[in-house]
Every structure is written in C-alpha cells, then in structure tokens.
C-alpha cells in the first residue's frame, strides 16, 4: 500500500492510537489504550488497532500491540519518537530571522542611524509570519493529540 493510501486510510483516532503506541515503545493492550486515550470502549480501541495492523503500522505479539516506526505523515516530522508539525519547525526559522532583524535595528539605533521603513516592514512581516506558522503548527499538533 502506498504512502498516499495510508494517509487516506488513517482516521484521527487511528493516528492517535498509533502515536500513543509509538511513544510507549512497548506492547500495549486495547484496554490500556482505551483508558489512556479516553475511548468509549475496548472494542473501539481494538478496531483501530486492527486497522493499523492491516496497514502494517502495528504488530501484535503475546503481550499486546507495538508500533512499527517509520510512517511518514504529511505535514509532520519525527524527532526522536515525537511527531512534530513541520510548521512549528518552519516558524523557528522565521524566529531566527526576526532575532537577526531586531538585532540590526538595535545596532542602528545605538549608532544613531534612523531605521529605514523597509527594515520596519521586514520586521513586521517576519514577526507575523513567525506567529502564523507557530499558531498553525500548534493547531496541527492539537488535532493529533486530542
């Protein structure tokens, strides 16, 4: 099954179950998943585990289910065993640019050089881009965590 097919097959709850299993790195049963993720029944947890198993994302052993690492989820990147929205990483690039631009503004002010309107516009644009990417990244993170 292709990566695109897997992306289409994963529901929000299945993704949460997968992420939970991935973060634990040990065999977990349906009842524990139900309790930890607040699912309504063990059968609902079992349903999502079976879907993930069909997609090759989890394996079952005598002690429960364990995640198979390596799923690439569009818009996210794994850092260690944590799934992080790419938008959050991109926002940090703009934060670095913003810090450099503000440092340039401060240096100009210390040298009694009047800042140009272009620099002010650049700082505003970079700051707004940083905030937009950060907020959208946090929203993406909340979607898969709740």
Describe this structure in words.
This protein is mainly alpha-helical. It has helices at 3-9, 12-24, 30-37, 42-54, 86-110, 117-145, and strands spanning 58-61, 64-67, 76-79, 82-85. The chain has a two-stranded antiparallel sheet. The protein has a two-stranded antiparallel ribbon with strand order 3-4. α2 (12-24) crosses α4, α3 crosses α4 (42-54) and α5 (86-110) packs antiparallel against α6 (117-145). The radius of gyration is 22 Å and the shape is rod-shaped. The chain starts with a helix and ends with a helix.
Instruction: Name the beta content range.
Output: 5-15%
Average pLDDT across residues?
86
Q: How many helices in DSSP terms?
A: 6
Give the low-confidence spans. Answer: none
Shape: rod-shaped
- Report the span from N to C terminus: 27 Å
Please provide the count of β strands: 4
What profile does the largest beta sheet have?
A: 2 strands, antiparallel
- Strand-and-helix sequence, N→C? HHHHEEEEHH
Rg result = 22 Å
Strand order of the largest sheet: 1-2
- The secondary-structure class comes to mainly alpha
Helix content: 55-70%
